[in-house]
Write a structure and sequence with these properties.
50% helix; 4 domains; Phosphorylase Kinase, domain 1; 3-stranded antiparallel sheet; 486 residues; 17 helices; Transferase(Phosphotransferase), domain 1; disordered C terminus; single chain; alpha+beta
């Protein structure tokens, strides 16, 4: 116990409900916020369960004895749980891996959700999946990723506490909220940024689906449920003789998650993000639309290639259609190779820049260039018109005036050519310096990530984006020197 903790005898009396109500509340609030005292409280619970089991065994009560620790593991969660420092409401949300209770943290009155894991083979030996989810979330610090308040064990079941998100699942939010395509893109950009942050911190989600993204009352998406997450570099191969269990939601799994789940990388999450974008754009899932809610998909349905979003909703912009279809390519080598690349292409669409998913189309590139520089082209046309009008007037002047004009025009052209060449050389040199800086920042990001210095890694990533945006903001260079390093 640490300095400032309540006395152990007071804590034990509070556990036995032998203190006054006011004093018990004070002790419980301290226990909820102090890890040392929380562990001691759990030992009180364990000691009492052992004592109850021994007494039942002495009385010949075999069922009561089986409830004691060491005799049997209670796989079934009780209808109600009592966790020190938290007031849980009646009822719960049942899932395949865990049960979620809603409650209140008594010390701060914050609304929380308590996720209690079932003890089952799917959870990899009682708490293996819980431990992995805790490790995954502990690495992440992002406004669009759920955070953990505390964790522990209750009646042989691991649990952790997270904020209660008042809102809707992503699919509910899309159905209930009218959104423009620009607003939909803004929503999925935040989800992609959250997943990209997880990848930079060495975590793959591997279970991205609408019910695992919750949108709060302010319209902010929160990525949740990292129960299937993997830490990059860890060994997840199945031991010999153990049956392979395909964990996840089949209609939202990348093909490689079914065919070879031991060989997964971040591109599996890119596929999941693509299916989320698909559903946000058209309002329904990409695969298995003909299935009833209770009907399980066949392997053929899981592996089917969805139609393009524009065939479902012709109003979907062609660029978003191309981005989505590239993200959900069956061949992972043809997808975006990272969530960051998908995020950047969505940002390019949002800001009217060239989208890489359509950059191979020549007419698209020309149309995009004319659209991006339409104001400059209009101004150039006006300038040409004015100059032409002026030239027509000047042709009526006498030969001396015309000759003088030609000399002046020639000097102006030469001056402008020199100025343009110098400007292009300066832009080229500046962009080359920025590209070199980006390469240095990538090295810094990689070294910081390897050293576990995530803040420096994030800062390097941010500066890379800033310099890349500055390079793109200079516009195309029509002429000037070239370099083999470009």
């Amino acid at each position: 116990m640490g300095v400032g903790c309540v006395a152990e005898v007071d804590m034990f009396m509070a556990f036995r409900q032998e203190l006054s109500a006011e004093r018990s509340v004070t002790v419980l609030r301290h226990v909820a916020g102090c890890p040392l005292c929380h562990d001691l409280w759990k030992r009180f619970e364990l000691d009492e369960q052992v004592a109850d089991g021994i007494q039942c065994a002495l009385r010949g009560d075999s069922k009561g004895a089986d409830r004691g620790p060491g005799w049997a593991m209670g796989d079934e969660l009780p209808e109600r749980l009592d966790i020190p420092g938290f007031k849980l409401r009646p009822g719960y949300i049942e899932g395949g891996q865990a049960r979620v209770y809603r409650g209140t943290y008594e010390a701060s009155q914050e609304e929380v959700a308590v996720k209690v894991f079932h003890n089952s083979p799917l959870n990899e030996g009682e708490s293996g999946r819980f431990a992995r989810e805790i490790k995954s979330l502990a690495r992440l610090r992002h406004p669009n990723v759920i955070t953990i308040r505390s964790d522990g064990e209750i009646k042989g079941h691991a649990y952790y506490v997270m904020p209660w998100i008042e809102g809707w699942t992503l699919d509910e939010y899309i159905k209930e909220t009218p959104l423009t395509f620009a607003e939909k893109v803004g929503l999925v950009i935040k989800i992609c940024d959250a997943v990209s942050h997880a990848h930079r911190r060495g975590v793959m989600h591997l279970d991205l689906k609408p019910t695992n993204v919750r949108v709060d009352a302010a319209g902010e998406p929160i990525v949740m449920d990292f129960g299937l997450a993997r830490l990059m570099g860890a060994d997840y191969s199945e031991p010999p003789g153990k049956p392979v269990v395909v964990a996840g939601t089949p209609l939202y799994m990348a093909p490689e998650q079914i065919d070879n789940r031991d060989d997964l990388d971040v591109r599996a999450d890119v596929y999941g993000l693509g299916l989320l974008i698909y559903e946000v754009l058209v309002g329904r899932r990409a695969k298995g639309t003909h299935l009833a809610p209770s009907e399980k998909p066949t392997l053929d349905v899981v592996r089917e290639e969805p139609p393009s979003p524009r065939t479902v909703n012709p109003k979907v912009p062609s660029e978003l259609d191309a981005i989505t279809m590239r993200a959900i390519q069956t061949d992972r080598d043809r997808r975006y190779q990272t969530a960051l690349a998908l995020h950047e292409d969505l940002e390019s669409y949002k800001h009217g820049r060239l989208v890489q998913a359509k950059a191979h189309q020549r007419w698209y590139r020309l149309h995009k260039w004319m659209h991006l520089y339409r104001e400059a082209l209009a101004m150039l046309g006006l300038i040409v018109l004015i100059i032409g009008f002026a030239v027509a007037i000047r042709m009526n002047f006498d030969a001396r005036t015309l000759l003088h004009k030609e000399i002046v025009d020639k000097q102006l052209r030469e001056t402008n050519e020199v100025r343009l060449v110098r400007e292009q050389e300066l832009v080229f040199a500046l962009n080359r310096t920025r590209r070199e800086l980006i390469e240095v920042l990538k090295d810094v990001e990689y070294l910081a990530s390897m050293a576990g210095d995530w803040d420096h890694a994030d800062e390097s990533c941010r500066k890379q984006k800033e310099n890349q945006a500055k390079i793109e903001g200079t516009g195309p260079i029509t002429s000037g020197p070239t370099s083999d390093t470009d």
